[in-house]
Amino acid sequence: MHVRTQVRLATALTALTVAAATAATVLAAPAGAASRAPAFLSASQLPPHPFSAWTAGKVTGGVPDELRLCLDEVFPGYDSRYRPFRTDVDASARQLTIVTGTAAKAKALADRMNKEIRGCARRIEAADPEIEASYRGYGSLAVEEGARVHGLHTEASWGATDIRLMSVGRDGRTVTVVDWSQMGDFTDAPVKAFKKTTVTAVNKLY
After folding, report:
1. What is the 3-state secondary structure (H, E, C) of the chain?
2. How far is the CA of 182 from the CAs of 5, 34, 89, 113, 163, in angstroms?
3. To bridge 100 with a disulfide, which of 48, 105, 133, 163 should be the other Cys (CB 3.0-4.6 Å)?
4. What pLDDT shows up at residue 26?
5. Is the pLDDT of residue 60 over 90?
């Protein structure tokens, strides 16, 4: 009888310990944290195009091929989601979001992305002698944990010329990349409007 009582007491104490730990976890987590997800830009929040409206695609898992040009080495090991945008002419855009485990991991990821983008022009020229590439930094933005804006121009020996604006922003443990591109050069880049788009994108994170 004494043995049975000890067993029952041990079982009850174990159950109480588990219940207390579960309650503490629930109390520590923000309401709705499990179901919350970063919001994406809408088509109307992209830099206006003079000849065409923007159309937004569906949010899907993975990485858009266009971002692999500069950031391919960064993505392994991360779950990511993105939304593509297009116009009826030559402009297109993408927004990628990655939710990491901690704010420290997000900061490290954003720093790595900025570094990879800054070195992208050099890598492009090294990989293809028929393409000239140049980079311009457009500075940082004071939004949440910060964002940085980059410009990349490529010109091929056969005459094709393209301009891209890319930004990396962070809020807490979430990182977002906004990528805009069209035919042209640095004079065709809507830098001011793109910075506004980047601020909006980072403010939509959590």
Report:
1. CHHHHHHHHHHHHHHHHHHHHHHHHHHHCCCCCCCCCCCCCCHHHCCCCCCCCCEECCCEECCCHHHHHHHHHHCCCCCEEEEEEECCCCCEEEEEEEECCCHHHHHHHHHHHHHHHHCHHHHHHHHCCCEEEEEEEEEEECCCCCEEEEEEEEEECCCCEEEEEEEEEEECCEEEEEEEEEECCHHHCCHHHHHHHHHHHHHCCC
2. 76, 38, 9, 21, 6
3. 105
4. 36
5. yes
Angle at 180 between CA 178 and CA 181, to 5 degrees: 155
pTM: 0.81
Q: What rounded mean pLDDT belongs to the chain?
A: 85
Task: In whole angstroms, give the CA distance from residue 165 to residue 94.
Answer: 11
Least confident of 21-25, 169-173, 185-189, 192-196: 21-25
